[in-house]
Specification:
- With 158 residues, the chain is α+β, with helices and mostly antiparallel strands.
- 25% of the residues lie in helices and 36% in strands.
- The protein has helices at residues 4-7, 48-60, 134-156, and strands at 10-20, 23-30, 35-36, 39-41, 67-81, 91-102, 117-122.
- Strands 1, 2, 3, 4, 5, 6 and 7 form a seven-stranded mixed sheet that branches.
- The longest helix is centred in the C-terminal third of the chain and has 23 residues, at 134-156.
- It is globular.
């Protein structure tokens, strides 16, 4: 029997930003054939944020208390996955990504458990990493940060 979650899988994760030696960077995890974010599928009874935090900790080894979520940012995308789980069926997958920053004073040491490697990538938009998911996410983060900066400038009268 195919459940509702199998008909439309939901994957949640976190885009982690950090400042390192004066540069803004984000974390990517290496799979066999691609780079991706730390993310995974929602377990029964789990919220999307709970899933994102659990997967983040499991896949990076970074404690959730070492990051600060940007509460006013949430990215959602839907895309088709061909031959989902080798079943010969195409499904529409829902992706939900939260934005977080590594807290000051935290090393950001990554211990990959489900990936071959990881990389801190310099923030230098536009990025061309993954057309269906990461590229639009990074574009939305860029827009989000510009809007926040404009609000800050308005508040200070500049």
């Amino acid at each position: 029997m195919v459940t509702a979650s199998e008909k439309q899988p939901v994957s949640c994760g976190i885009l982690l930003l950090r400042k390192h030696k004066g540069r803004k960077q984000f974390l990517l995890m290496k799979h066999a054939r691609r780079w991706d974010l730390p993310k995974g599928h929602v377990d029964p009874g789990e919220t999307k944020l709970e899933c994102a935090m659990r997967e983040f900790e499991e896949e990076t080894g970074i404690d959730r208390n070492d990051i600060k979520l940007q509460k006013d940012f949430r990215f959602e995308e839907y895309y088709e996955v061909k031959n989902w789980k080798g079943r010969g069926e195409n499904v529409t997958k829902r992706l939900v990504i939260f934005l977080a920053k590594l807290k000051k004073g935290v090393s950001g040491k990554v211990v990959p458990t489900e990936h071959l490697d990881y990389q801190w990538v310099d923030w230098d938009p536009p990025h061309d990493i993954q057309e269906k998911t990461i590229n639009p996410l990074l574009s939305q983060v860029t827009d989000f940060q510009r809007r926040r900066e404009k609000k800050k400038l308005k508040k200070t009268g500049q």
